[in-house]
Amino acid sequence: MKKLRLIIMLGKQLIQNNIFEIGIPKLKKLCRTLKDKERAPKEIVEQPGRRQQWHLDYDLEPFDGLTPEYMEMIIQFGFVSLFVASFPLAPLFALLNNVIEIRLDAKKFVTELRRPDAIRAKDIGIWYNILSGLGKFSVIINAFVISFTSDFIPRLVYQYMYSETGTMHGFINHTLSYFNVSNFKPGTVPSISSLGKDVTFCRYKDYREPPWSTEPYQLSKQYWSVLAARLGFVILFQNLVITMSMLVAWVIPDVPKNISEQLKKEKTLLVDVFLNEEKEKLQLIQSLFSRDLIQEQQKEQQVSDQTSLPLQQTQTEPVPPATSPASTAPRTRPRAASFSQFTRQMSMSPQSNITQHTAV
């Protein structure tokens, strides 16, 4: 199993991917150049012995996106995180692969591919969720690998539950079960041992009931206790690692402290600018409203002055003398007399005719 993982890490990641990243673009470029030579040459106005830069860029392979690059990193991260407990050299080979691939990718993007279009992105998108899921799943896988493929849990169980002295003395004998050779099927009985004695019982590593018990070869209580301890270790390990990861994520913020403080200052300044603008707008509205109110008051005062002026003129204007009906002078437009003027004339000439006042 370790050889298989070694072949995967060295063969696929370090050799296959890196060779293909450089070799495939060169082969495609060569094929494109050969196809362009077979076509009829077009009339292009250019300097003799020198091609334009866009002609040189057109011979390069078009950029297919970052999906293959992300996929390669996801596969590498999966191998490293899922099987690190069984193959501890996987992170070392991944580091060597990444150091080499950085330079190969730089050479590929500069000399073998066309310039990619720049697109603004907030983050790496769905790939972050995939990496996060792989990280959580790898915790469970490594917990099962540690608890079920090693003697770490059985040793602890024996030391704290079955050892009389609290030490590991007698642990090997505790993990071995008995088997009666007479229970072998015909033709499967082992040969005589080198000691020259017949073999009656053999020992094997398992937690089974002995042949002389009431339930021979059944799973013993020690097996169930060890299994419960292993499952408990898986749950404890998973919760502990997740808690530690959450604690580290809380202690180390995504945004540095100085940048967060600068963002807070910018937000505070922006709020102050908005408040000042709102205050200026409110003052402008109040000034316009007060000016309109003053103008309306002035207009009302002018209208009242204009209405009171004719009344004063009519009060101070002298009354013309009465004319006879037979007069040939042109008749003037009669004016309406005020009530005070009418009473004053009545008091001054009580003997005068009322028709004369109406004529006036």
UniProtKB/TrEMBL annotation:
Chief location bin: membrane
Gene Ontology terms, MF aspect: intracellularly calcium-gated chloride channel activity
Biased composition (Low complexity): 324-338
Membrane topology qualifier: Multi-pass membrane protein
Membrane-spanning residues: 74-96, 126-146, 231-252
Subcellular location: Membrane
InterPro entries registered for this protein in UniProt: Anoctamin (IPR007632), Anoctamin_TM (IPR049452)
Biased segments, Polar residues type: 303-317, 339-360
Record GO cellular component, one term: plasma membrane
A Pfam family recorded for this sequence: Anoctamin
Family under the similarity heading: Belongs to the anoctamin family.
Protein name per UniProt: Anoctamin
Originating organism: Sinocyclocheilus anshuiensis
